[in-house]
Amino acid sequence: xxxxxxxxxxxxxxxxxxxxxxxxxxxxxxxxxxxxxxxxxxxxxxxxxxxxxxxxxxxxxxxxxxxxxxxxxxxxxxxxxxxxxxxxxxxxxxxxxxxxxxxxxxxxxxxxxxxxxxxxxxxxxxxxxxxxxxxxxxxxxxxxxxxxxxxxxxxxxxxxxxxxxxxxxxxxxxxxxxxxxxxxxxxxxxxxxxxxxxxxxxxx
Length: 204
What we know:
With 204 residues, the protein is mainly beta. 9% of the residues lie in helices and 55% in strands. Strand 3 (84-94) and strand 4 form a beta hairpin.
């Protein structure tokens, strides 16, 4: 049973069948896909130096644009403590330049959340809550966040957090997945967003 089946419980069966297949990420299943982001946007230009710095951690990046090719690879891992993880590798291709938005997720059965360590090595932590809509679409919301500095994890006050909203659904008429991500700060507003479509790569 994948960590996403565990967090969603009975809701998992309410997901569109293709989303159920996509999030069935276990030691026997990975998910690899490619697609195009119709738009990738950023926040105020004064944030760009911070985003450029964040690109060294494969977390955020200053580039934005339209019709940006990208790939996604989700793989199952076991951590040093025996905990099940799902590694997210997202690569965006700006011409010859590759930018990453990577994460490592695991399930916390006591708090009933997904633990999300963003960046590689991790620089930011976020609690994630999952919800399935009546239409079978998936929504993911980030909650409490911490700055990760090696072994130290420092809680971030609300005004410094970048809270993400993710919506994912399956377009039957296009045989593709649709994704929309927006990261908001309570003072600045939108600081990062992308929207696009992708299809699972055919396994050889």
